Amino acid sequence: MASDQIEMSKSNPNKISLQQPSLPWRIASSLSMGLTAALSRGFLYGFNSVETVGLDRFLDILDKRKDVEKRQRGLITVSNHISVLDDPIMWGVLPLRYGFNPSNHRWGLGAHDICFKNKFLGSFFFSGQVLPTHRSKYSPHGGLFQPTIPQAIRLLSSQPSVSPAPAASENSHDVADPFTSDGLTFTTTGTDRYVAPSQYARNRLSWVHVFPEACVHQHPRLYVRYFKWGVSRLILESDPAPDVLAMFIDGTQRAMAEDRGWPRFLPRFPGRFRVAFGEPVDPERAFGDLRARWRDLVRRNQHQGRPLGELTDELKYGDEAVRLRVEVARRVRDEVMKVRKSMGYPDEEPGLGLELAETWAEEPSKDRYKSNVDDSLVNKKD
User: CA–CA separation, 252 vs 232, rounded Å?
Assistant: First the structure.
């Protein structure tokens, strides 16, 4: 997956151009994303009823981002996670022209043990703009500080990463230490290798979608679990502050219910799908105070000079850094809950404390289980 994606400069064949991936790679990406979008849209509108809220507003946002040179900020979308089909089915509400334009479509985080368990699947998902993400339950390489998170941070940012190692040439895309450096490739385990999408100019200020619950959570009244802190890192560390837009989805949990019988791999239909897009959040109003505290913490820890997304131990594990991530995640969850409420769903029951990770600390360690917190069906595997 790290082969022949870097387009060489025509004026100087010995110089690597970081404007965009090679033409074959762009074609493969457009086809994989476009055909997936066509299948998703065909399933949604061909076999089900679909209701969208705020779609025209969201399409207007995407249209304004079409010209990469005119983008002012990256874009983070966040939503609840209610089935294994959420992505890509939820993007089936977008007209097909968006599916065939990867430079103006989402980057996502996909479970390494599912999406990248063999070369074929890995190539398909990577060309579909899915970043390999390890989950701590299944891999020692998982967690908040794995190399994939800096890639997402850099995709959301405007500044190019630090220049690649001087040794890089037409025949070598390696850097001295790809596990911790922001060179032309990155590795998630120390042995695998992926082309770093953040190195391309066309990928700056990109759109990244996140499911902060980080697992499938099917509640009969669509309650939402606490949000994990990966989204906090994206908001605190991206430069400039990205726009944040909350979403809420309903319907895929009936198409792929966690308690479905055989054949489990087939979605059920017909059904009713609802996809709501909220208003874009002003990042300075919503998170400016927290980002200011983060920048001050960075200065005090002499962090200058490190590649974007790489942190000292204090910035990883220090009390102030943890408090900032907790508060960002809470505020992001509040935005998703606003969209949920606007769709007419009942308020959460008081006392559940769904926003608190501690509430869920005693949950079973099984992949699939019925929650002892709110009677929802939880699937950590998918």
Answer: 26
Beta bridge pairs of residue 274: 51, 250
Check: CB of residue 227 under 8 Å from CB of residue 330: yes
| CA-derived radius of gyration, the chain | 20
Question: Whose structure tokens read 């992926």?
Answer: 194
Instruction: Report pLDDT digits (tens) over 327-358.
Output: 999 999 999 999 999 999 998 877 666 567 77
Extents of the domains making up the chain: 6-346
Query: In the predicted model, is pLDDT for residue 120 greater than 80?
Result: yes
What mean pLDDT value characterizes the chain?
88
Looking at residue 15, what is its pLDDT? 40
Task: Say if CB 37 and CB 99 are below 8 A apart.
Answer: yes
Buried b (16+ CB within 10 A) or exposed e, 11-42: eeeeebebebbbeebbebbbebbbebbeebbe
Q: So what's the pLDDT on residue 352?
A: 63
Which residues on neighbouring strands pair with residue 276, listed in sequence order? 53, 248
Please name the residues in contact with 75: beta carbons below 8 A apart, sequence gap of 6 or more: 61, 65, 156, 205, 206, 207, 208, 242, 243, 244, 245
Q: Rounded CA gap, 363 and 382, in Å?
A: 17
Quote the pTM value. 0.90
At 119 the three-state DSSP class reads helix
pLDDT exceeds 70 at position 219 = yes
